[in-house]
Design a protein that fits this description.
Elements (H helix, E strand, L loop, with lengths): L9 E3 L1 H23 L2 H21 L8 H16 L5 H38 L6 E3 L9 H11 L1 H23 L8 H8 L1 H26 L4 H13 L1 H28 L1
Helix pairs in contact: 2-4, 4-5, 4-8, 5-8, 5-9, 6-7, 6-8, 8-9
Amino acid sequence: MEGTQGVRGLTPGRAALGARSIGWVGAMAGAFLAALARPRWWAVALASFLLRGGIVVVLLPIITLPTVATLSSLASPTLAAIAFGNPPPEMVATYALLGGLLAAWVAVAVIVGPWLDLALVEEVAADEELGLVTRNPGDDSVVPLGRAVTVRLVAHLGTLAAATYAGIRLVVEGYGEILSPGDPTVPLAWRIALRAPDAFAVLIAAWLLGEGLGSMAVRRVALGDSVAGALGRGLQALLRPSGLATLVVSNVGIVLAVVPLWLAASRAW
């Protein structure tokens, strides 16, 4: 992986240095207009979003959430087979296939996601009209893809911890909901979610912060920083008022784009 080419050594261009004088609002407006005029960037950003979990957001409105009876009918044979130590080969093959598909998706997301990040940085670097970055004269070095993958993974260590906490909370509350069911007109998944709102709040917050830190660290890697340096400078940039404001505004934009799609897909399905 370390031998895989990434983005050649870059330095901030005149436009990037000038952005400091126009302020945060001007920089955000300029970035929005630049992205609006380049549909190719949309495809790259959309692919990265879907790989990193956006596909779950897209699929939620078109899938049917299971009821208690459905879960019982699915889980009972599995638990009985495990308890008696004699699971049928078909069951083992099915769960092995599902586990393999999940592992493959994670592997693709871990590798292809940072590659798409570097591809987008390369697109920006190649756009002479923007002038945001310039190539170092005579610098033929490249940023290894492995370095971008590493900063992305480290940035999401907090997400892993949050996912562990959320999983434990949901299992406990799910067990409590099955033992003492609430309103039967409300789907089981929603009843469990309402019993453990903190699990989703912690997980979503950790995921968004991990995405913000990872994206800033990848940009620093593309400019030639080491893994530790990229993460340190990325964290400093994220915790600045302008960095937090950018994180909030960009995610509000995603919500405004996804919610109408979600509602329309749910109604159509």
